[in-house]
Design goal:
- The protein is 49% helix and 15% strand.
- It is α+β, with helices and mostly antiparallel strands.
- Strands 1, 2, 3, 4, 5 and 6 form a 6-stranded mixed beta sheet that branches. A 4-stranded mixed beta sheet has the order 13-15-14-16.
- A hairpin with a 5-residue loop joins β7 (397-400) and β8.
- The longest helix is centred in the first third of the chain and has 21 residues, at 156-176.
Length: 730
């Protein structure tokens, strides 16, 4: 694979199935935009960051993806790394591309307790978006594939973390979507970094037997080909190699030696129709002895990822064992590309996400269940990923409704799990289960092939005992929600309890609780606790969702906003009388030629930021970023300000907080990155967090403008062990 891919190489691939000039222009425009925005950014390999985007676009083109998907692949990092807004992207490239790029952009500017929670939140965001538009996961899978191909440029600890994440999250979703060519490569690349010794040991054993194996396969192919030609069947036949991780998994899970893996010698036969598939199977079984119990008909009973094929294992000459796969050309395409084959772009077609989602649901039985699970938007990110991993990725038993709908469930799942997968209300009202025509206890473990019918009662409901029985996270979460809802029906008494707790705490602090309520100070802090009313606040106190200490701390520091318009006008007049040239800030007040203007130290605006003015008493106008939390609730004292377009950009000091895991030479790498971008450092300080694992680095920098700052942040994020970078509010 070449290190660099040009735009023309991508277009050559695209031109194989796209001829429309507007579609080609969309991809070209996306390339030019990405090239401009990522200018000055580099990967760990030392290559320009654009190289990664070109590879992503090229792989998407090889999968015959749409112009929108390929363009989104080129643009997938501009929001995260270049400070481009979703609105700007939408205006320039349309709603679909903006949505896909926003979906694959990592969550930023939020506080997480640890890296695991942060990753879970990002995964949840991606998979919820995928439930609405499958193109999101195509971009993310291909992005991860190329990152894995270039993982050697990272430090060993980061290689291990990314490989583990790939094996646990991205390879399973590729498998469930039937995209074998991506799933297999992701697994083998992860295997190489996670179990390096085992990887090279198996690779060596495979290579040692290669000459012997190739000779045996060639001999068998010759014999089968001659037999099929004599019976006038059109076909293609070839040997196939088992990928290394698959061999390793069989050795580990089945406790077998390398030479005991039966399907190391494998042959695939591709023919024109289903009838031909069964004919080929008949001829092979007539000529060679099949091994009992090894015949699998995935044509009549497709796998949950749309995979269809006939599998049989036969004994060849001299006792050599072969696994034979027989399928049609369409089945072979789906076996390699899964849902991506179904989503192949056709010139003139309109890829509507809603229609596409319905088509995928019809083809992938589990996808409808997956969409149902993503409806719980308030669910904790860690719980959501646990649910996805256990209920979707690890599902390996298949049971049916009386009408023949197949439901995927994990091992040992019960009729209760089955009921909740059908519908939440069916689960809540379950009172009995009939499995294969026999009444069974609702905690009976199900197995593949069971036909399950649920008996319900509208007046019934789940008990806490069910939590000990169910195996799926989906059912467990629904039961917990039901129990919590029941508790909320007692909300009035809990509100009274919260009020009593509040009064007692106020008395202990020698505070008049009635004065607090009458002065509306309680209402003024509600938004800080994300509650809508004082009753909700009291309820949260009673259920210990909020601590009394935190509530009284907010009450003690909170200041009620000014509501006197005349007072504001007076302050404005005071400021305008003390006129002072704008100096070197580059900011002017709208409608006023000159005024005392200074930069706020709390949020440190930089030329190009969205800004607003705040009228102070005797100090003129303080310029804040519009998202500064210190003025976000202000309405009376704000005034419009703007950057002068012809201003020669000056020096702007701002403070960055860099959150990372601790390692040797971290500070050196951070300082080097800043100096390479010609950023002046005025102060740097690193402190080890309480967990003794993470470190927070505060970096005071001087930059030319917001673009200069965005380039710095983007490159700092790529330093090994850095989790996130934020502009600090003082």
């Amino acid at each position: 694979m070449p290190m660099n891919i040009s735009l023309q190489v991508i277009l050559d691939e695209v031109n194989k199935y796209i001829k429309n000039e507007d579609s080609i222009k969309l991809i070209t425009d996306a390339y030019e935009f990405a090239k401009e925005k990522h200018s000055g950014q580099y990967r760990k390999s030392g290559e320009p960051y654009l190289v990664h985007l070109m590879h992503v676009a090229h792989i998407l083109a090889q999968l015959s993806m749409s112009p929108i998907t390929i363009s989104a692949g080129l643009l997938h990092d501009v929001i995260e790394d270049c400070g481009v807004s979703e609105k700007e992207l939408q205006e320039k490239f349309g709603e679909d591309i903006a949505m896909i790029v926003a979906a694959v952009t990592k969550i930023g500017n939020l506080e997480f307790t640890d890296e695991k929670e942060y990753l879970a939140a990002n995964h949840r965001k991606i998979f919820i978006a995928m439930a609405n538009d499958i193109r999101v996961i195509f971009v993310k899978l291909v992005d991860r594939l190329h990152n894995m191909r270039t993982l050697q440029f990272h430090k060993p600890e980061k290689q291990m973390r990314i490989a583990q994440e790939t094996l646990e999250v991205y390879a399973p979703i590729a498998h469930r979507l039937g995209i074998a060519q991506i799933k297999n490569e992701l697994e083998d690349l992860s295997f190489q970094y996670l179990h390096r010794d085992k990887y090279y040991e198996i690779a060596r054993l495979v290579e040692m037997r290669k000459v012997e194996r190739d000779a045996q396969i060639t001999h068998m192919i010759t014999n089968i080909s001659q037999m099929l030609l004599e019976n006038n069947i059109k076909f293609n036949i070839f040997g196939r190699s088992k990928h290394l991780y698959s061999i390793y998994k069989k050795m580990e899970t089945r406790h077998r030696r390398f030479d005991e893996i039966l399907d190391l010698l494998a042959i695939r036969i591709v023919t024109e129709s289903e009838l031909n598939c069964y004919e080929v199977l008949g001829y092979i079984h007539a000529e060679y002895r099949p091994i009992p119990g090894r015949l699998k008909d995935y044509i009549a009973m497709p796998k949950s990822n749309m995979y269809q094929s006939l599998h049989t294992t036969i004994v060849g000459d001299e006792g050599t064992i072969f696994e034979i796969q027989i399928r049609t050309y369409e089945m072979d395409e789906i076996a390699e590309r899964g849902v991506a084959a179904h989503w192949r772009y056709k010139e003139g077609s309109v890829a509507k996400p809603i229609k596409g989602r319905k088509e995928i649901e019809d083809r992938l039985a589990w996808f409808k269940d997956f969409n149902m699970m993503t409806d719980d938007m308030d669910e904790d990110a860690g719980d959501f990923m646990d649910l996805l991993r256990k209920d979707i990725f690890e599902a390996n038993i298949y049971v049916m409704t009386p009408k023949g709908r197949v439901i995927d469930l994990p091992n040992s799942a019960t009729p209760i799990d089955f009921a909740y997968r059908i519908h939440t209300e069916v689960g809540h009202q379950t009172v009995g289960a009939i499995v294969n025509g026999t009444l069974v206890p609702i905690n009976t473990p199900l197995k593949t092939g069971d036909v399950v019918s649920i008996t319900t009662n509208k007046n019934s409901g789940p008990s806490e005992d069910w939590l000990k029985v169910v195996k799926t996270s989906h059912a467990r979460n629904k039961i917990r929600q039901y129990i919590l809802r029941k508790q909320h029906e007692e909300k009035d008494s809990l509100i009274q309890k919260g009020e009593q707790m509040f009064r007692e705490e106020a008395k202990r602090r020698n505070i008049d609780d009635k004065e607090i309520k009458h002065s509306k100070r309680l209402e003024s802090i509600l938004s800080q606790f994300s509650v809508n009313s004082v009753n909700d606040l009291m309820f949260a106190i009673a259920t210990k969702a909020l601590s009394l200490q935190s509530v009284f701390e907010k009450l003690s520091i909170h200041k009620i906003p000014l509501d006197d318009a005349e007072r504001f006008e007076k302050l404005l007049k005071q400021s305008t009388t003390q006129r002072k040239p704008q100096g070197d800030s580059g900011v002017r007040v709208k409608g006023i030629d000159s005024m005392m203007v200074s930069m706020s130290k709390c949020c440190s605006p930089v030329y190009g930021d969205d800004i607003i003015g705040y009228v102070t008493k005797g100090q003129g106008v303080k310029v804040h970023r519009k998202d500064c939390p210190n003025i976000v609730n202000e309405t009376k004292r704000l005034i419009d300000v703007y950057w002068e377009t012809e201003f020669q950009h000056g020096d702007y000091e701002t403070v960055l907080s860099i959150f990372s895991t601790d390692r040797n030479f971290l500070l050196t790498d951070l300082v080097t990155t800043a100096s390479q971008l010609k950023v002046k450092l005025t102060a740097v300080n690193s402190e080890l967090d309480e967990d003794k694992v993470h470190v927070t680095t505060t970096m005071r920098v001087v930059v030319n403008d917001s673009q200069h700052l965005r380039n710095l942040v983007a490159n700092l994020r790529k330093v090994d062990s850095v989790v996130r970078v934020e502009r600090k509010i003082l």
